[in-house]
Design goal:
Shape: flat
Distance between the termini: 19 Å
Radius of gyration: 17 Å
Structural class: mainly alpha
Largest sheet: none
Helix content: over 70%
Number of strands: 0
Amino acid sequence: MWLLWATIAWNVTEGAITIALGLSAGSIALTAFGLDSMIEVFASLVVVWHVRDLDDLDDHHRNRRALRLVAGAFFALGVFLVATSVERLISGDRPDESPVGIAYLALAALVMFGLAWAKHRVADKLGNCL
């Protein structure tokens, strides 16, 4: 569970930083990356909710509700991306450069790959690897 909470903490920070960087640079990509981080926080909180009662893990309706919540959040992001991209394409707006954004995304990749590796090790120990 501590890896899940560490992921949530990282994604909250990552989302706030990349949304701010994206808005300041006028970058849909950076802003969407931050929004995706917020959706990942939401998805992680759904997982916390889903596993809080281990006796109900096999409940079909609970599993379905959890998947629908996460899918709905990603669908909303997709709608945002399409609408914003079309608006920017029509208006001809171009984002500014964001060297800080690029550097932060590189750091984010390292952290997220590290968290993924740690989660994979835990899953392997629990016998839950695919």
